[in-house]
Amino acid sequence: MNMLVDGEWRTDAYQSTNEDGEFDRQDTTFRDRIEDDPDARFQPEAGRYHLYVSLACPWAHRTLLVRALKGLTDAISVDVVDPYRGDDGWQFTPEKEGCTEDSLYGADYLRELYVKADPDATCRVTVPVLWDKQEETIVNNESEEILRMLDTAFDGVAASDVDLYPDGYQDEVDRIIDDIYDPINNGVYRAGFANTQDAYDDAVEELFDALDHWDSVLEDQRYLAGDRLTEADICMFTTLVRFDEVYHTHFQCNHQFIREYDNLWPYLRDLYQTPGVAETVDMDHITEHYYTTHPDVSPKRIIPVGPDPDFEAAHDRDELPGGVPEDLLATV
Ligand SMILES: N[C@@H](CCC(=O)N[C@@H](CS)C(=O)NCC(=O)O)C(=O)O
């Protein structure tokens, strides 16, 4: 697979499975932090930061969701790459529906920004990227860390007081984000990119065990961490919303659709209908990306018709304790 090696683009450098045929996701490399501290190198400021995203990517989608829910859309600008990722990696194709140019530098490919940030970069060129316009560099390209920064470091800047990492819930939120990563968020990729039957079998078994578990947790609580919408729900949402259209078919996670679950399905609709969320979901970019970008998995690049789940249908979960924070309803 493609990656940068010493700042040069290579199409043969990155092996995505290990010797057992298991998908091996590489660690991200830019890990600086924006901190609300006068001595910090990267401080929260309106207009200083920029996100490079793909609307198809579940990891980038997390950052767009927090940006929307926190009321940071005016403070943090965004550019959107083409959903199709070819041999040259993520590309800017402003002529295509839902895509933008690189509004900062007019780059053709996202990798140019990585090399600008580090001329000797040796890494995958992934989205999301949190870019600092002041220092002209990448602050961070790990979604979990970006979403935490947008949620917790921008209090003086964000238009909304919504707190997705509230006191009293933090340990639980961290535990859930950690618990769902391997079997669910990364689990669908482990199933889809497995190169052996054993690797696939292990991944789907863990995936559906975990989905069953969370389906039962959600029977009598509205959100993953209890009665409040938190970062954990953001992390779960971006996988669930892609599941029936993409992961079920493309990654062969076809034991069950999300819309067949008693609680996960209404939970997914509840999140989708939370103010600010639906606008971040672009199913055309999602389906185009997956079905056309992985020739090993889907060589004919045909985008299937899909079940078109009705995310707008009533969910009735407002009968459970807790709910959408008032300030979110007011600001989004
Ligand atoms: N751990 C990273 C993963 C990001 C990631 O893998 N993004 C994918 C898109 S869904 C990507 O850009 N892949 C390009 C590549 O691996 O070359 C995060 O959570 O931000």
SSE topology sketch:
Elements: E1 3-5, E2 8-10, E3 49-53, H1 58-69, E4 76-80, H2 111-117, E5 129-132, E6 137-140, H3 143-152, H4 170-185, H5 187-192, H6 197-217, H7 231-250, H8 264-272, H9 283-293, H10 326-331
Helix pairs in contact: 1-3, 1-7, 4-6, 4-7, 7-8, 7-9
The protein binds glutathione (GSH).
Glutathione binds next to helix 3.
Task: Describe the protein in words.
By secondary structure, the protein is of the alpha+beta class. It has a domain at 170-280 and 309-329: Glutathione S-transferase Yfyf (Class Pi), Chain A, domain 2, CATH 1.20.1050.10. Helix content is 36%, strand content 7%. The chain has ten helices and six strands, in the order βββαβαββαααααααα. It has a four-stranded mixed β-sheet with strand order 4-3-5-6, sandwiched between helices. The protein has a two-stranded antiparallel ribbon with strand order 1-2. α7 (231-250) crosses α8 (264-272). The longest helix is centred in the middle third of the chain and has 21 residues, at 197-217. The active site is at residues 57, 189. Residues 163-311 form the GST C-terminal domain. Residues 1-26, 308-332 are annotated as: Disordered. This is Glutathione-dependent reductase.
Structural class: alpha+beta
In DSSP terms (H or I, runs of 4 or more residues), the helix count works out at 10
How many E-type strands? Answer: 6
CATH class of the domain at 170-280 and 309-329: Mainly Alpha
Ions and ligands = glutathione
Beta fraction of the residues? Answer: 5-15%
Helix content: 25-40%
Order of helices and strands: EEEHEHEEHHHHHHHH
Mean pLDDT: 95
Predict the CATH topology of the domain at 170-280 and 309-329.
Answer: Glutathione S-transferase Yfyf (Class Pi), Chain A, domain 2
Radius of gyration: 19 Å
Question: What would you call the shape?
Answer: globular
The CATH architecture name of the domain at 170-280 and 309-329 reads Up-down Bundle
Spatial order of the strands forming the largest sheet = 4-3-5-6
Distance between the termini: 40 Å
Q: Largest sheet at a glance?
A: 4 strands, mixed
Low-confidence stretches: none
